[in-house]
Write a structure and sequence with these properties.
- Helices cover 33% and strands 19% of the residues.
- It is an alpha/beta fold.
- The protein has two domains: 177 residues, 3-Layer(aba) Sandwich (Rossmann fold), CATH 3.40.50.360; 53 residues, 2-Layer Sandwich (Alpha-Beta Plaits).
- It has eight helices and twelve strands.
- α1 runs parallel beside α5.
Length: 260
């Protein structure tokens, strides 16, 4: 069983690659949260995995929300791991995960860090297609290691991407994320075609359609930027300052489909 969250496909790709090596099934957290069913029977599971991106060197708010509500029936000290995707470093996101799981009586057995394509365009410009392919090729080494270790249920810290002083970095940076997930910076241009995809893929239901155009109806969101990156008309922007920064969805994985 592999729980994953992904907005731009990187963590989805990693989850599916690990699942292919272990024959474990994947569960998308967006669908779990929308179903409001947080109890899972793991009595027949040999491995329980979590695959998630890192935001501000910590866990996305939607992942923390899920973990706080999670109930695993039949848990009896099975192998539990987390694979963290990141731009360059994960910080102490695994430490956050470990604490949340420990509060549920669940022990984290192993952690992995997997550098992927950095696509947080409020702070960076997306690389060109050739560089993106090189970065994805380089990630395969980390993914293959995770596949081998998880299949063998190896324990320990396999995260080579924590960076210097991860606890300090996460403590400083994550507070900005926790208090700064405002939806006000999102802007919609006249290029919008009213397809409603942004509303369907938003993991926290922060987007509604008004007169065929997206409106952010909640003051905060996950800030996954899935709506921005996946808009087919490129009509969603961050403060209108990202026109030349590109859009991204992992080209090696099929986009998940909306529920409706």
């Amino acid at each position: 069983m592999i729980f994953y969250f992904s907005a731009t496909g990187n963590s989805k790709y990693v989850a599916e690659r690990i699942a292919a090596a272990t024959d474990d099934h994947v569960i998308f957290l967006r669908d779990v949260i929308r179903s409001r069913c947080y109890q899972f029977d793991v009595s027949q599971e040999r491995r329980i995995g979590f695959v998630t991106p890192t935001y501000y060197f910590g866990l996305p708010s939607v992942v923390s929300f899920f973990l706080e509500k999670l109930r695993l029936t039949g848990y009896r000290d099975q192998y539990v791991y987390v694979a963290l995707t990141c731009g360059k470093t994960t910080g102490d996101a695994a430490g956050q995960m470990g604490k949340l799981l420990k509060s549920k009586g669940i022990t984290l057995s192993a952690q992995f860090g997997i550098p992927m394509v950095d696509n947080y365009i409020p702070l960076t410009k997306l690389a060109d297609p050739q560089e993106i392919e090189r970065e994805l090729d380089a990630a395969e080494e980390y993914i293959d290691e995770a596949r081998r270790v998880v299949r063998a249920r190896g324990t320990g810290d396999y995260n080579r991407c924590q960076g210097a002083a991860p606890g300090v970095v996460t403590a400083l940076a994550y507070s900005a994320y926790a208090h700064g997930r405002s939806t006000k910076p999102f802007v919609v241009t006249d290029a919008c075609i009213g397809c409603g995809l942004c509303q369907e893929i938003c993991p926290c239901g922060a987007i509604t359609l008004a007169d065929g155009k997206p409106v952010w109806s909640k003051p905060q969101c996950v800030r996954c930027l899935g709506c921005l990156h996946r808009c087919p008309a490129k009509a969603i922007h961050w403060k209108r300052a990202d026109e030349d920064k590109g859009r991204y969805y992992n080209p090696r994985v099929e986009p998940y489909r909306p529920l409706t």
